[in-house]
Specification:
Elements (H helix, E strand, L loop, with lengths): L2 H14 L16 E6 L4 H8 L7 E6 L10 H12 L4 E7 L9 H10 L4 H9 L4 H5 L5 H13 L10 E6 L6 E5 L1 H7 L1
Parallel strand pairs: 1-2, 1-3, 3-4
Antiparallel strand pairs: 4-5
């Protein structure tokens, strides 16, 4: 597979033709927002269009399931950098229906790892270091609950300013319809 070479060939032409010019913007999000979203391919263009976002409007962080799994991991660090260094003043956690993380089976994933050459000793080493791989790989039952959990971790983070609203949304991956799980404006006022 020569996908890398196809990309590089295309990129050379992209730069030569100055095709980047319509996308020029600053590093500061024009709408002052940072979004944690799922890496699902269906959301690549749908999510920004459904939220009326253009290039440069928001900082978008993507991972599997739009899940904040550790309050001091790279996702939370990115949110804090967006707030303190890049002028973001609202946070959005956007999950989606039909998310692959709702069907992840850690046991099957470990089997696939073994089939693709991960040595069994690696799993013993991780367990000995206190890493529960099956818990770490575990998905979620409902996207609404998952979004609410991530919002809770972000909102209660000791380094996040209290006045920053943290919203929880769920988008339909076909229609783009957005449902509110947590309205960060009213949630902030009640806390």
């Amino acid at each position: 597979m020569a996908l890398l070479y196809d990309i590089l060939t295309y990129n050379e032409s992209f730069v030569e033709k100055k095709s980047y010019e319509p996308y020029e913007t600053s590093k500061f999000p024009k709408k002052g927002m940072v979004i944690l979203s799922c890496m699902d391919t269906r959301l690549l263009e749908l999510l920004p269009r459904a939220m009326n976002l253009r290039n440069g409007d928001a900082k978008i962080i993507k991972n599997a399931g739009a899940v904040l799994s550790h309050p001091f991991g790279s996702v939370m660090r990115s949110i804090l950098v967006a707030v303190y260094e890049l002028s973001a003043n609202e946070v959005y956690v956007v999950g989606h229906h039909d998310c692959g993380m709702s069907t992840v089976n850690p046991e099957h994933m470990v089997e696939k790892m073994l089939q693709r050459g991960v040595h069994p000793d690696v799993f013993s080493t991780l367990a000995g270091a206190g890493i529960d791989l099956k818990l770490w790989l575990e998905g979620f039952e409902t996207v609404e609950t998952s979004v609410a959990q991530s919002v809770g971790i972000i909102k209660s983070h000791p380094l996040l300013p209290h006045e920053i609203p943290v919203h929880g949304l769920v988008i339909h991956p076909t229609t783009g319809k957005i449902d509110v799980v947590i309205d960060g404006y009213t949630h902030s006022q009640n806390n």
